[in-house]
Design a protein that fits this description.
By secondary structure, the chain is mainly alpha-helical. The chain has one domain. 75% of the residues lie in helices and 9% in strands. It is built from four helices and three strands, in the order ββααβαα. A three-stranded antiparallel β-sheet has the order 1-2-3.
Length: 134
């Protein structure tokens, strides 16, 4: 990585890995919302497991298919956006953990935490997509 005032060069493979992790957090947040709204059952657990395996497998395949030598340019603006997206995801995960003990309103905080995680992850994925197109 080469920092040159205003932009940074990085391997496209690292951006793809970052996008795969954002997709994991998107489905993690979506699962949190669905757990709060839908009663758990065996079929739900099976779909949850299959979905998790598919997301991980797709991320690994996408990462391995990306060239090791391709370099992309990341600007200060994109780095700042990604930094704030990660802060929002961390905040929403901490919110979910801290409010898990509340008897009243736990359901609402769980839905809110999952929704914030999913939306922030989509924004991070989109930013990574824009970076990878450079």
């Amino acid at each position: 990585m080469d920092w040159q005032g205003g932009f940074m060069q990085t391997f496209k493979r690292s951006i793809v890995l970052q996008m795969a992790i954002f997709m994991f957090f998107f489905f993690f947040g979506l699962d949190d919302v669905l757990r709060a709204l839908i009663r758990r059952s065996t079929i739900y657990t099976i779909f949850e497991g299959v979905g998790f395996v598919l997301v991980i497998a797709a991320g690994v395949i996408w990462y391995l298919k990306t060239s090791k030598e391709t370099i992309v340019i990341v600007t200060d603006k994109e780095l700042t956006i990604l930094k704030y997206v990660l802060y929002v995801i961390a905040f929403s995960l901490i919110l979910g953990v801290l409010t898990s003990g509340f008897e009243n309103g736990q359901l609402y905080f769980r839905i809110l935490s999952g929704a914030i995680t999913s939306i922030a992850s989509l924004f991070g994925f989109y930013t990574g997509y824009l970076i990878s197109k450079n």
